[in-house]
Design goal:
Elements: H1 11-20, E1 30-34, E2 37-38, E3 58-61, H2 66-80, H3 99-104, H4 113-123, E4 150-155, H5 163-166, E5 174-178
Antiparallel strand pairs: 1-2, 1-3, 4-5
Amino acid sequence: MIVTVSTQEQVQDLRQSIIETPDTFQYTCFHLEHNGDRINDFIELSEVKDLQQDSEILLIEDPYTEKEARMHLVRMRELIGAAGDRSDFLHGISAGASLHDDLFGAAPAPESAKEKLADTQDTLAGYDMESKPDIHTILPTDQNTLPKTVKALSVSQWNPPPHHLRQRGHLLYLLLTTNEGEQ
């Protein structure tokens, strides 16, 4: 994946972009490297040694610790909607939706400048400037919500794992509850 960044950006900002980008949201425990050297997360990109335009920065996955596994669990709960019974409208109704795109984006583009001028004049033709505004013009259209596939995802009561299983790599145990109530 190619990401264009400014040299004034912090490495931490780049990490946050990676975590929030739909193509790479599954990565939560990683570090960044340039020319085989690990990049400090708390510096600006301009401070990275030998970093030039069109340089490659590699994402290297790290092994999970218990802390990182718990942070990953919180992130996954947010993504799948299993963070508990909360409103889907936490950030408002259709946050980030563009009214302009909804109202004007579907119109086909005119072919010539003369048609373009005529089209803009026709847009206001027949519009009564003195009339009472209709609230439905600016309200977003209803969108179907995605079905919830998991009722709850949490840390199991069987934590921490026994020592002999920790040596085999067990970090923590999870409890998944489906919509049907199976665990």
